[in-house]
């Protein structure tokens, strides 16, 4: 495969990853705002991170990377990347709270979403290169193989 096709393939995969990730992040952000009204922010962040990670892993494996079902190993590796992401977002919002205790919701969400975007870029690289890398074993059916062949032909 020539390098232009390879760049295009990764750009398309990153576009799908970013689109799905953005939708899931905004949904998780809304859930975080709602949950944090009743439980501590860090606990709400952990809960939304766990739920969104499971959903994101399934969607990214199937849609972003055209890899098929991620299986337990894929979920665990993805969870490891999200654990690091959770620590980064928690540290960012915690630092904001320490530096600006009177920060409003808009600033809190700006910091949270900015940290999440940076985490997302790193997460894409790890998932693409290590977890759902091309050539890694896929748990798939014949239809997954046909979808991959159609994707390869279109790239």
Describe this structure in words.
Mean pLDDT is 83; it is low at 140-155. The chain has helices at 3-35, 41-64, 71-99, 105-131, 142-154. It has one domain. The chain has 155 residues and is mainly α. It is built from 5 helices and no strands. 23% of the residues are buried.
Summed up:
With 155 residues, the protein is an all-alpha fold. The protein has helices spanning 3-35, 41-64, 71-99, 105-131, 142-154.
How many DSSP E strands? 0
N-to-C SSE series? Answer: HHHHH
Largest sheet: none
Radius of gyration: 17 Å
Helix-strand makeup class: mainly alpha
- Percent strand: under 5%
Helix tally? 5
Q: What is the 3D form?
A: elongated
Helix content: over 70%
How does the SSE layout of this entry go?
Elements: H1 3-35, H2 41-64, H3 71-99, H4 105-131, H5 142-154
Helix pairs in contact: 1-2, 1-4, 2-3, 3-4
Keywords:
81% helix, 155 residues, mainly alpha, disordered C terminus
